[in-house]
């Protein structure tokens, strides 16, 4: 006899053979009927059941769980009762329903991951003397070459144009007061203290930070990072620290190149206005204090470390396939530029408060 189901308020009656061969069409109907009876006591009548195997007992247990309340079994045969008891004893406990965590604001999304990555990098730096064998010198110089030498031409061109633009825009209003020669003082101070390291950091974020994120993101998507971890190699030591060191190594040279190119662009404009190069050089020497120049180099080192760290973090946390590589590169550029501007603002407040 095929398995049959009859429902009445507060009662479900099962008849026929509750075996694996007969339960296919009946299973979803029986479980759904038990769920519809939730909220009140339910009786499952088994007096009309001719045969019951483990599949039939599993159906009854599924009905009990779907109902979630008080369920009473009636009419069970001497064969069915011990089978149901045995199945209940070995069945896993129903996992409690967990409340969905509150959705975090986008500003704080991934904040824990970022802090953990920063901490892992600091720990890797502290343990570096004992793990120098993991650093590959050839890779370090290759990374430094890409970050520095290949960006030098762009830095020189951009610096020269920025110097010309600053000189033009400053000379127009200052000429009204006959002080256009002091454009040399203004541009020198702006380049050495602020614009030089800031613009180089933006270039690093666009070129080097995105390159770090794309390279490490590809390794993450292809499970190469997981393979290094399995072999006992710390990715922060082997991959992150060399890139941070390379960025910090080339940053002072690129900053000096940016300053020199900017001053050359400014001198070109002032020379076109009729001022001799000797007078321009004198103003640069008088106002180009060593403290301002060193202050710019110091800020540049911090900017480079932040850009490299953000680029590496974006790459190592990429997941979800090839699309994640592009998203990691975008996050590295945006994060690097934002971090550079924020750090520059912090430095401005500190130098103002310390009267530097």
From TrEMBL:
Q: Which InterPro entries match?
A: MlaB-like_STAS, Permease_MalE, STAS_dom, STAS_dom_sf
Keyword set includes Transferase: no
Example of a GO MF term: phospholipid transporter activity
Q: Does the keyword Transmembrane apply?
A: yes
Q: What keywords is this UniProt entry annotated with?
A: Membrane, Transmembrane, Transmembrane helix
What are the residue boundaries of the STAS domain, all occurrences included?
12-84
Q: Which GO terms describe its cellular component?
A: ATP-binding cassette (ABC) transporter complex
Instruction: Spell out the Pfam families in the cross-references.
Output: MlaE, STAS_2
* Parts of the chain that traverse the membrane: 111-130, 151-169, 181-204, 225-251, 263-285, 297-316, 328-352
Record's protein name: Phospholipid/cholesterol/gamma-HCH transport system permease protein
State the taxonomy lineage.
Bacteria, Pseudomonadati, Pseudomonadota, Alphaproteobacteria, Acetobacterales
């Amino acid at each position: 006899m095929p398995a049959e189901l009859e429902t009445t308020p507060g009662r479900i009656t099962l008849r026929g053979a509750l075996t694996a061969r007969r339960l296919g069409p009946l299973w979803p109907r029986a479980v759904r009927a038990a769920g519809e009876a939730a909220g009140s006591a339910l009786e499952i009548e088994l007096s009309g059941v001719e045969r019951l195997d483990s599949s039939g007992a599993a159906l009854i247990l599924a009905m009990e769980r779907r109902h979630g309340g008080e369920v009473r079994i009636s009419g069970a045969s001497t064969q069915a009762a011990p089978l149901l008891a045995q199945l209940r004893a070995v069945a896993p406990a129903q996992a409690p329903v967990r409340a969905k965590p509150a959705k975090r604001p986008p500003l704080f999304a991934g904040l824990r991951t970022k802090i953990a990555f920063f901490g892992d990098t600091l720990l890797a730096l502290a343990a570096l003397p004992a793990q120098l064998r993991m650093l590959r010198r050839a890779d370090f110089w290759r990374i430094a070459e890409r970050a520095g030498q290949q960006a030098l031409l762009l830095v020189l061109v951009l610096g020269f144009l920025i110097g010309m633009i600053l000189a033009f825009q400053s000379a127009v209003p200052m000429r009204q007061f006959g002080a256009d020669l002091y454009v040399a003082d203004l541009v020198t101070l702006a380049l050495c203290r602020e614009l030089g390291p800031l613009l180089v950091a933006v270039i690093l974020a666009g070129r080097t930070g995105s390159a770090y994120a794309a390279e490490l993101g590809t390794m993450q998507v292809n499970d190469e990072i997981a393979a290094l971890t399995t072999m006992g190699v710390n990715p922060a030591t082997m991959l992150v620290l060399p890139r941070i060191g390379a960025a910090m190594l080339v940053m002072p040279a690129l900053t000096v190149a940016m300053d020199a190119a900017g001053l050359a662009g400014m001198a070109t404009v002032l020379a076109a206005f009729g001022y001799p190069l000797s007078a321009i050089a004198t103003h640069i020497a008088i106002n180009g204090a060593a403290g301002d120049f060193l202050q710019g180099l110091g800020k540049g080192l911090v900017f480079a470390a932040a850009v490299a760290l953000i680029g590496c973090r974006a790459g190592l946390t990429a997941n979800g396939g090839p699309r994640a590589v592009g998203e990691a590169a975008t996050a590295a550029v945006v994060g690097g530029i934002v971090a550079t501007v924020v750090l520059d603002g912090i430095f401005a407040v500190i130098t103002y408060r310390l009267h530097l």
